[in-house]
Design a protein that fits this description.
Elements (H helix, E strand, L loop, with lengths): L2 E12 L9 E18 L3 E6 L6 E4 L12 H14 L6 E8 L9 H16 L6 H16 L6 H8 L4 E6 L5 E5 L5 E7 L11 H19 L11 H6 L6 H25 L3 H17 L6 H10 L5 E7 L6 E7 L3 H14 L6 E5 L6 E4 L1
Helix pairs in contact: 1-2, 1-3, 2-3, 2-4, 3-4, 5-7, 7-8, 9-10
Length: 371
């Protein structure tokens, strides 16, 4: 019996770096996806082949060691096996064939899609009966503890639970979520891939998380209160401690607190089909990521700056963890070709390769079937 699972990539509409701060996020699954075809084999050996990589990789479930240094694609499969067994599920060997249309290193969660697609296939093949929410949590644990990227839960939840034409408003503290309508009518969402690759395990991503934790401790010390995360801290608190905090930690914490407020406002704007207000929040989010959180890059800034004043663009910002990857642009459908041409011209003037583009909408999440 062959199991086929299909997991989408994701973009985060707004709420960047808030998930590991126990805040709110508003992602959507997208119509670029990754598939895993899996058949069980005797023993505890897994043999995996991935499109674009000419050599198959083999590993034993009995010999899984957490990643040291830069992770490879096979490490995400090992991580899923490691996390499933750590949670009490016994695995057998498998033959695995992976095909993906999600660009690697573009900030569209190709790694989380691989984790969920593989975990979903194992879940079905071995009758593990793991519900989608727990499967997402196990895949997050795989990335945190095995791969070594201290990501929040957003990517895995968006991929596991995504629905067509709806965004996922997720409370990363309680893990409660609601779906927000995301039907754009005459507007559309354009992904612009800067082609600046990033590897999260080798980036400053983990450092940002540590900086937030340090800020929480210092703010609590100054105010004489115990906080578990920046989620519990108000903007008024941040302003009170501005002169006490190191400048860097003030900037990081202010960004997160303001971004949480933007996520909730963005959900309201979408419910009211107010794309003008929603677009304004996208612009403010990018400014915060650029100026306070310091995770943008010149290429992403150029994409956003090039379209900022256009009357047919509602808003734009970088999406994903940053340090490269993609920007999203919410705009009128009729303006797509003109906007792409303008961005290409701007990149050419800087001597940079032109971005890649993809029009998307909110797509469905993980699916698994057998034959």
């Amino acid at each position: 019996m062959t199991i086929k699972s299909n997991a989408p990539g994701r973009i985060n509409l707004i709420g960047e770096h808030t998930d590991y701060n126990q805040g709110w996020v508003l992602p959507v699954a997208i119509d670029l996806s990754l598939s895993v075809n899996l058949t069980l084999r005797p023993g505890r050996i897994c043999v995996a082949t991935a499109s674009g990589f000419p050599v198959s990789q083999t590993f034993s479930i009995d010999n899984l060691q957490p990643v040291q240094g830069k992770p490879l694609w096979i490490d995400y499969l090992k991580a899923v096996c490691w996390a499933l067994e750590k949670n009490g599920f016994w695995l057998s060997g498998a033959n695995i064939l992976i095909n993906s249309e999600i660009p690697i290193g573009a900030g569209l969660s190709s790694s989380a899609a691989l984790e969920l697609a593989f975990a979903g296939a194992l879940n079905e093949a071995l009758n593990l009966s793991i519900d989608p929410q727990r499967l997402a949590l196990i895949c997050q644990q795989a990335e945190n503890e095995y791969v070594g990227v201290r990501c929040g839960i957003m990517d895995q939840f968006a991929i596991a639970l995504g629905r067509a034409d709806q965004a996922l408003l997720l409370d990363c503290l309680s893990l409660s979520y609601t779906f927000i309508p995301f039907k754009l009518n005459h507007a559309t969402l354009l992904i612009a891939d800067s082609k600046v690759k990033r590897i999260l395990g080798a980036s400053d991503y983990n450092r940002r998380r540590t900086e937030c934790e340090d800020a929480v401790e210092l703010i609590g010390n100054y105010l004489g209160r115990k906080f578990l995360s920046l989620r519990e801290i108000s903007l008024e608190d941040i302003i009170k401690v501005k002169d006490y905090l190191p400048k860097l930690l003030y900037q990081r914490s202010r960004y997160v607190v303001e971004e949480n407020a933007r996520v909730l406002a963005a959900a309201v704007a979408l419910k009211e089909n107010d794309l003008v207000s929603f677009g304004y929040l996208l612009k403010r989010s990018h400014a915060g990521l650029r100026d306070l959180y310091d995770v943008s890059c010149p290429e992403l800034d150029l994409i956003v700056d090039t379209v900022a004043a256009d009357q047919e663009v509602f808003g734009a910002r970088m999406t994903g963890a940053g340090f490269g990857g993609c920007a999203i642009i919410l705009l009128q459908q009729a303006a797509v070709d003109r906007i792409k041409a303008g961005i290409d011209q701007a990149f050419t003037m800087h001597g940079w390769a032109c971005p890649g583009y993809h029009l998307t909408t909110a797509a469905g999440g993980l699916t698994v079937e057998s034959d």
